[in-house]
Design goal:
This protein is mainly beta. It is built from 2 helices and 8 strands; from the N terminus they run ββββαβββαβ. The protein has helices spanning about 60-70, 150-155, and strands at about 5-10, 15-20, 25-40, 45-60, 75-90, 95-105, 140-145, 175-180.
């Protein structure tokens, strides 16, 4: 069987619908629209060049995260296996729909901002140093910690912009999780 993997940047155009199959396995489906634009040299403006509509299905470990996070109107990046679904509509006409069985979905950070909250603490081998992947997660009772003063005050590549000013291309200081004292 073929495995045509692709990544699509688009906007969620339907409310994600969660359902359970007869065997109890949960699935979430929603539609994504991806607009193509091109520069028209004659008019000197960007113009719409068509829209790709795609049905996205989410299975297994992806279901809880999508159910808690994705809403209609959200800008997303979806990555997964492309398939065509052929069916006969109620009016008797044969139709085809492009589907993606998603393996990863995330916010399109070129068009939005996102706060990350991890589901659970990942195990760390004994004696291993903490790193970004194995640090405590929010459910384990952690609080954000700002960068050291010197790092937050450093001018970086844009000396005319203050750190954390919210300007495009220059995000504020990175926040790192550390345990909360009980």
């Amino acid at each position: 069987m073929y495995e045509a993997m692709a990544t699509v940047a688009g906007t969620v155009v339907t409310h994600p619908a969660k359902r359970e199959l007869a065997n109890g396995e949960p699935v979430i489906t929603f539609r994504v629209a991806s607009n193509s634009r091109r520069f028209d040299q004659a008019s000197g403006e960007w113009v719409d060049n068509g829209t790709l509509f795609l049905t996205v299905s989410c299975w297994r470990r992806l279901v809880p995260g999508v159910h808690a996070s994705v809403r209609r109107g959200d800008p997303v990046l979806v990555h997964g296996q492309l398939r065509t679904h052929e069916y006969r509509a109620k009016d008797g006409v044969e139709r085809r729909d492009l589907e993606m069985r998603a393996v990863a979905i995330g916010p399109d950070l070129a068009r939005c901002t996102a706060a990350i909250s991890r589901r659970a603490e990942r195990p760390r081998p004994e004696g291993a140093e903490p790193d970004a992947v194995t640090e405590p997660m929010p459910e384990a009772g952690v609080a954000p910690r700002a960068l050291p003063e010197a790092a937050a005050a450093a001018p970086g590549p844009f000396p005319d912009r203050a750190a954390g000013s919210g300007t495009v291309g220059r995000p504020g200081p990175t926040r790192i999780a550390e345990p909360v004292d009980a």
